[in-house]
Design a protein that fits this description.
With about 150 residues, the chain is of the alpha/beta class. It is built from 3 helices and 6 strands, in the order ββαβαβαββ.
Amino acid sequence: MKITKIIQWDMGHRIQNHRSICRGLHGHRYKAEICIEGSIITEKGLSEEGMVMDFADLKKISNDLILNKMDHGFMVHDEDAEMINFFKNHSGHKPVIVPFVPTAENVSKFIYEELEKEIVKLENKNIKISYIKLWETPTSFAKYNGEKI
């Protein structure tokens, strides 16, 4: 069985070496579809009986990673010296420094891997992340399902 939680947030970024206007500072209204799969809990009397996972628990885990760390932030590659220097010299911003170029593909993989670290800590060991579908615009998304790329 699969369940999906959708989280939305606003975040800026730039693709430093891109050939188009994406090289400049800009932002998106991101939407992540977080799909979890596993067996339905059948143990009688449990709060989660009949569920794969409580949506409230998935929301909390997702909010801790995404909203608390990324919402209204600016994702910057740790090799983007110009932006790193800017954030060092200007307070009042929310840099999200990552070891990759912040494309939709890489961000979806990052969210998958970070959420996976939290999912494995849960009591229910019969669940896993099925995929992360990250919408960067209303018509463009990247989907990562754990494959090695």
